[in-house]
Design goal:
Layout (H helix, E strand, L loop, with lengths): L2 H21 L4 E7 L3 E8 L20 H8 L1 E7 L2 E9 L8 E9 L8 E2 L1
Antiparallel strand pairs: 1-2, 1-5, 2-4, 3-4, 5-6
Helix pairs in contact: 1-2
Length: about 120
């Protein structure tokens, strides 16, 4: 996989997974699918009450820029299927990578809420 594409995928996965853990409801699942033309990232959670919303962050706001960054790197969409909510980001591949790879990770937040890291 192209190094620049890998960097973009890592930013998208990190942002969407963090949002799923902070604003969603367990279980949170991240799936990365690599095809000949795209890398597709899905983040699923069980919080049906609220869908993501793009916001305009103020100069001094600490949050509120992540989804805008993801929209600059990918085609972003979201919705509901059954009892789960999803956020989907699709990134184009400039060169075809090895295809057919599917990576799925169930995420659990760390025990203390002030630590915003992810447990893989």
């Amino acid at each position: 996989m192209d190094v620049d594409l890998l960097d973009d995928v890592l930013v998208v996965v990190n942002e969407l997974a963090t949002n799923g853990l902070e604003h969603g409801q367990e279980p949170v699942t991240v799936t990365v699918e690599i095809t000949a033309a795209t890398v597709v990232v899905h983040v699923w959670d069980a919080m049906l009450a609220a869908l993501p919303a793009l916001r305009i962050a103020g100069v001094h706001d600490e949050n509120g820029r992540g989804l805008r960054l993801v929209t600059e790197l990918s085609m972003l969409s979201w919705g509901r299927v059954g009892q789960r909510k999803y956020v989907r980001a699709q990134l184009p591949c400039p060169r075809p990578p090895r295809t057919g790879a599917l990576i799925t990770v169930d995420l659990q937040p760390l025990a203390t809420p002030r630590h915003r890291a992810l447990a893989w």
